[in-house]
Amino acid sequence: MVLGQHAAASTPNARERVLDTAYTLFSRRGVRGVAVDEVIARARVAKATFYRHFRSKSDLVLAVLERREQEWTTGYVEAESERRGSNAEERLLAIFDVFGEWFARDDFEGCTFIRVLLQVDAENVVGQASVQYLENIRAMIRRRAVEAGLRDPDDFARSWHILMKGAILAAAEGEPEAARHAHDMARTLIDNFR
After folding, report:
1. Ranges for the HTH tetR-type domain (predicted)?
2. 46-65 burial code (b ≥16 CB/10 A, e <16)
3. Under a CB-based contact definition with an 8 Å cutoff, are residues 51 and 34 in contact?
4. Which tens digit of pLDDT belongs to each residue from 14-41?
5. What is the architecture of the domain spanning 57-192?
6. What is the pTM of this model?
7. Helix, coil or strand: residue 78
8. How far apart are CA 98 and CA 90, in angstroms?
9. What does pLDDT average to over the chain?
10. What are the domain boundaries of the chain?
């Protein structure tokens, strides 16, 4: 099940049905591969209802990105790695344990923020939002680097985030051990920043 998809079954609210539908479609196929008319049809709402809740496709994409951050970044990766680690270093490494489970799922869809950013201009409002959500992930890594007492938390967070994104792309390419390889490299990265 794609993260976010569960809400459609639990609420009759038209806005939520549209958002859940778009979340699933955009996560799987990207924003360019999905037309507003398809979202409207699959969400079973009238076109006027759609536009009452979302002025444009860009507004819908922004809402999907916000939900993705809540459900995936904060609700899944950050919370689950926090739960698994007893200290900051363990919580950093646990990110790749969480990734390993995510990568193994039948509905692994990759990173929506990266996918959107690659499909739109970074200067576009949707591209800017994607950049900001990716920065929010780096901020979480930066906080953990500070907690772990690592030197140069900004540089560490950028390097760690590159490793995260690389693991996601490797998994999307079909590399079954992407998370394990990234976990091994992550240990070295932590050692280099002690």
Report:
1. 12-72
2. eeebbeebbeebeebbbbbb
3. no
4. 999 999 999 999 988 889 989 999 999 9
5. Orthogonal Bundle (1.10)
6. 0.86
7. helix
8. 12
9. 92
10. 57-192
